[in-house]
Write the structure tokens for this entry.
Amino acid sequence: MSKRISDKMEKILNTQMTREAYQAQVYLSYASWAEVNGFPGIATFLYGHMQEEREHMFKILKYINDRGGESKIEAIKAAPKNPKNLGDCFEQILQHEIDNSKEIDKIVNLAHEEKDWSTFNFGQWFVEEQIEEETLINDIIDKYHLAAGEGKGGNSNLYDMDRDLASASQEGDLPREENL
Ligand code: FEO
């Protein structure tokens, strides 16, 4: 198969593939944290999102290989330390997503520079996805502030929020226990 992406593009896509695997680690670790800290619904949401990030990783792997490059499976950095509380958890996630969006922009910029319209087109899917993800997390942060009541007596609404997030819409399928 002839190689249809530049070496530079192959490298940056490989880096992004590993980065998406890292995003999955972030969601996985925060999901586990939420689960052991009394928020099973939020944990369900985060486990589900972990799966989406794995799908992003795989999408990039396939693209590199389909364009005649070679995907390289490399070490994933350790997940970040546990969040301080639920608010911190969502703020950290938002920051990870914003950082990830910036990395996607670098790929699209390079594709534009190289007039690599296939990768440019491929990158647009991720640009759209990042907009959706940032919006989703921002909405959750707004809900969290409402639910937490910001000092107006108790956090009982967090119970409702936790229940709601268990069924919040997202694209990835939750891994079934038998597949784990
Ligand atoms: Fe694949 Fe949430 O970035």
Observations:
- The chain is about 70% helix and 0% strand.
- The longest helix spans residues 117-148.
- The two ends are 35 Å apart (CA to CA).
